[in-house]
Design goal:
The protein has 702 residues and is mainly β. The chain contains six helices and 40 strands. The chain has a 22-stranded antiparallel β-barrel. Strands 5-10-11-8-9 form a five-stranded mixed beta sheet. Strands 1-2 form a two-stranded antiparallel sheet.
Length: 702
């Protein structure tokens, strides 16, 4: 087929290896599916894509998704209601996280905590940078990260591993799989736990809580004929957290509380692939997933529940896709589906609105790939989304790949992306009992303000609430230009320049003031931002001697993430800063380092020495990011003073892995590792850095 003109991995070939499509799997050269929704050789994809294999995850000692993404070029992790992922300067809620092509739900204030996802049982990750809304819709404005599980193998095999590290952190995994040519299944059970850690011993309570996380993942395949493949995926996770804290008034310790939390999530994913003919393939998928959390604050003295919060979200999806290979130069993908989503919890429906708001969405997408010649390859895609909560959207994208030689690839793309208003921005109805402030989504806002007025809680209103426009989806136009070159067999250099323009960015601002002095907040389409930058990566794969090799990957990103209104105000000289001594001074554009949480410069390192004679791997991984704004102390909504920044820092980790044969059918793998070797800690701004950590693990493969 068109996307199989070169070597590929996980390529479907029949038992006689004479046809281009079947249900047996053989391992070949790198192939990806996320960027184009069909199998395609990585080096021939026209948009920026990278792959992280399970071999890399294992040699680096990665346990959670955050461990993997932390050392990837252009990826930045940021602490905000969990460990969020930034791509090309966009916050966490602009990047879509997929598991085998289906969305992972459960965000808190827009952040999907990547540290809640285990990487055990994964085959590889595929990362697509730049807007992918033309194929995946909302939440893909900045990019897509697709976690792809390993397919069940033929024969019987399994593994058992145990790891223990600092802060009583432990990870245990049992994996069993087996099958024949037409039937197979794999089960992975993982337990991840920690006692947490405390970076502020002078304050009662730990920085991060203790927890125990159990995950079970089942994948199966059934080949009914050479033309029909059925797959079933199911996954469930349950986590319990425990912590303590104390309330204070004027620096005096009052009551102490136990903070108890629980998270439950599950998903099920049946899929049917049918080869209707040698040129037409049909793929039908169903997907259902649920995410639930609950939190309780119990006073230690008498068990009184001072605060409790519940949240639940469910999503159901049905999709069908048809791939048509017209000839050796043209491939068309057509698809569509429906999505139903519902949320509930204590923060919704308090104003009398629906306590379980729900939405429905129908969508259609089309993509055409044209291999015009060995030199030029064009890709055009478009998607139509019709959502019950906002106006219909059309998002197109066009990309071109130029191959002047076998060692040079040039890529260019322009596309539109969009981000739908989140449920909290539409339906939230919440009043903080301690702080006294209230936050309303756009739909219950009018009713919520009326109710507060009737209770005599409103001092003044800043807007005519009933005349406010409904929220619009945020949208962007993005450009990516880059390529790769292989000057030597052992060296590959890649570069990509990007520019994203975003309009109708949804922000929070006060809409009214209460009689207690606190404010009522709402969500509005206000800001226009842009992110732009350059990504560079050099990969070295050197064969040192016959049975040893050295793999090195170096990455660098330059980033500007700016609010256009702030840029205009700085140019006009209307923005001022205030020094710690109270003196004001005028700020210029050179004082603007960008939006909060974004480092203008960042770098990454992955290196591994592999000795096959000794069955030994030495891995080193590191990341560095320049300083970035964290808070605003002088009231100008900017980070301009030194005490408003997180200073630049570097994180370095290393692992040594040794394999040896126990008996003929059993292999043992021992790994010793160290994380955060420089022992950096920033308790307030970067609580995810617990200082230097060591670990040791033992795995048996049989």
């Amino acid at each position: 087929m068109l996307f199989c003109t070169r070597a590929a991995t996980a390529q479907q070939v029949p038992s006689d290896s004479s046809r281009a499509d079947s249900m047996r799997t053989v391992r070949m050269a790198p192939m990806v599916v996320t960027a184009t929704r069909s199998e395609k050789v990585l080096e021939d994809v026209a948009v920026p894509v990278s792959v992280i294999t399970s071999d890399i995850m294992e040699r680096e000692g990665a346990l959670r998704l955050g461990d993997v993404l932390a050392y990837e070029m252009g990826m930045a992790l940021f602490d905000d209601h969990g460990m969020g992922l930034q791509v090309q300067g966009f916050a966490s809620d602009y990047t879509l996280i997929l598991l085998d092509g289906e969305p992972v739900i459960g965000r808190t204030a827009g952040t999907l905590d990547v540290d809640r996802i285990t990487v055990k049982g994964l085959s590889h990750l595929e990362i697509v940078r730049g807007p992918s809304s033309s194929l995946y819709g909302s939440e893909a404005l900045a990019g897509v990260v697709n976690l792809i599980t390993a397919p069940p193998a033929e024969g019987m095999q399994g593994s058992a591993s145990f790891r223990i590290g600092s802060h009583a952190t432990s990870d245990m995994t049992l994996q069993m799989e087996g099958g024949r040519e037409r039937l197979g299944a794999r089960l992975v059970v993982n337990r991840y736990a920690s006692d947490g850690y405390d970076l502020t011993p002078g304050i009662y309570g730990p920085t991060t809580p203790s927890f125990a996380d159990w995950t079970g993942d089942l994948r199966s395949r059934m080949v009914f004929s050479d033309r029909v493949l059925v797959r079933l995926g199911a996954r469930a996770t349950i986590e319990n957290q425990e912590s303590v804290f104390a309330s204070e008034t004027d620096g005096l310790l009052e009551d102490r509380y136990n903070d108890e939390g629980r998270r439950l999530e599950w998903s099920i994913h049946p899929e049917i692939k049918v080869r209707l003919s040698d040129k037409v393939r049909l793929n039908t998928t169903l997907y259902g997933t649920s995410y639930q959390t609950e939190t309780h604050h119990r006073r230690q003295d008498d068990g009184f529940v001072n605060y409790e919060d519940e949240f639940d979200q469910t999503l159901a999806k049905a999709e069908m896709q048809v791939d048509v290979l017209w000839d050796t130069k043209h491939l068309t993908n057509l698809g569509g589906g429906v999505i139903g989503e519902q949320i509930g919890g204590s923060r919704y429906g308090e104003t009398g609105s629906d306590p379980n708001p729900e939405s429905t969405q129908a969508y259609f997408f089309a993509q055409h790939e044209w291999l015009a010649s060995d030199l030029l390859h064009f890709n055009t895609s478009v998607r139509f989304d019709n959502h019950s909560d906002y106006a219909a959207r059309v998002t197109p994208k066009f990309a071109v790949l130029v191959r002047p030689s076998g060692k040079i690839r040039l890529r260019a793309s322009v596309g539109s992306g969009f981000k739908a208003p989140a449920f909290r921005q539409l339906y939230l109805s919440f009043t903080n009992p301690a702080g006294g402030y209230s936050v309303f989504g756009s739909l219950p806002m009018d009713e919520g303000i009326r109710q507060l007025e009737a209770e005599g809680q409103i001092e003044q209103k800043f807007f005519a609430i009933s005349q406010l426009d409904p929220l619009l989806a945020e949208n962007s136009v993005a450009f990516n230009l880059g390529g790769s070159v292989e000057p030597f067999a052992w060296l590959t250099v890649q570069a990509n320049a990007f520019h994203n323009n975003v309009r109708d960015l949804i922000e929070t601002q006060p809409v009214a003031q209460k009689t207690n002095g606190s404010f009522v907040y709402g969500y509005f389409n206000l800001a226009r931002i842009y992110t732009r930058g350059i990504e560079l990566e050099a990969s070295i794969k050197s064969q040192l001697v016959k049975q040893s090799s050295l793999d090195i990957s170096l990455g660098y990103q330059f980033l500007q993430a700016r609010d256009r209104e702030v840029v205009t105000a700085l140019k006009e000289g209307t923005v001022f800063g205030r020094r710690p001594n109270g003196r004001d001074y005028r700020l210029g554009l050179e004082d603007y380092t960008g939006m909060f949480g974004r480092s203008p410069h960042s770098a990454s390192l992955r290196a591994a020495y592999i000795n096959r004679d000794l069955d030994l791997i030495v891995s080193i991984q590191g990341r560095w990011r320049s300083r970035y704004g964290y808070r605003d102390l002088d009231g100008n909504n900017l980070a301009n003073r030194s005490d408003e920044f997180v200073p630049d820092y570097a994180v370095l980790g290393a692992a040594i892995t040794k394999s040896f044969t126990v008996v003929q059918t059993v292999e043992a793998v021992v790994q010793v590792g160290l994380d955060n070797a420089f022992n950096h800690t920033y308790p307030t701004s970067v609580p995810s850095l617990p200082g230097r950590r060591g670990y040791v693990s033992l795995e048996f493969n049989f």
